[in-house]
Amino acid sequence: MKTYCLRCEVQSPCKCGLTDKMFKYSDKIRTPRGTSNKVVFRKFLDDCPAFVNLIPESLQEDFLHLLRKIKYFNKSINGRDWTNITK
């Protein structure tokens, strides 16, 4: 299992060293290295909507912050209404 940190927005190994905003996901999902290339991360969310299913409820607000950062507006991911945000 790999981990993804919503604090430093990278897959394992985490740069910040804290584990409160981390969640685990399958080795088969290939996440982008970071969010610096917003287009690549948006394409990843379009191509792999199952990634959103792995986010626990306690980290949903942090994931919404990530969606705002990469400018992923007016789309719901994998039928999840909580991922549909506006500007």
Structure description:
23% of the residues lie in helices and 11% in strands. By secondary structure, the chain is an alpha+beta fold. The chain has one domain (2-83). It has a three-stranded antiparallel β-sheet, with no helix packed on it. It is globular. The mean pLDDT is 92.
Task: State the secondary-structure class.
Answer: alpha+beta
Number of strands: 3
Overall domain count: 1
Q: Give the percentage of residues in beta strands.
A: 5-15%
Query: Rough shape?
Result: globular
Strand order of the largest sheet: 2-1-3
Could you give a short account of the major beta sheet? Answer: 3 strands, antiparallel
Structural features:
single chain, 87 residues, alpha+beta, three-stranded antiparallel sheet, 2 helices, 3 strands, 23% helix
In short:
By secondary structure, this protein is of the alpha+beta class. Helix content is 23%, strand content 11%.
SSE layout and pairing:
Blueprint: E1 2-5, E2 10-11, E3 22-25, H1 38-47, H2 60-69
Antiparallel strand pairs: 1-2, 1-3
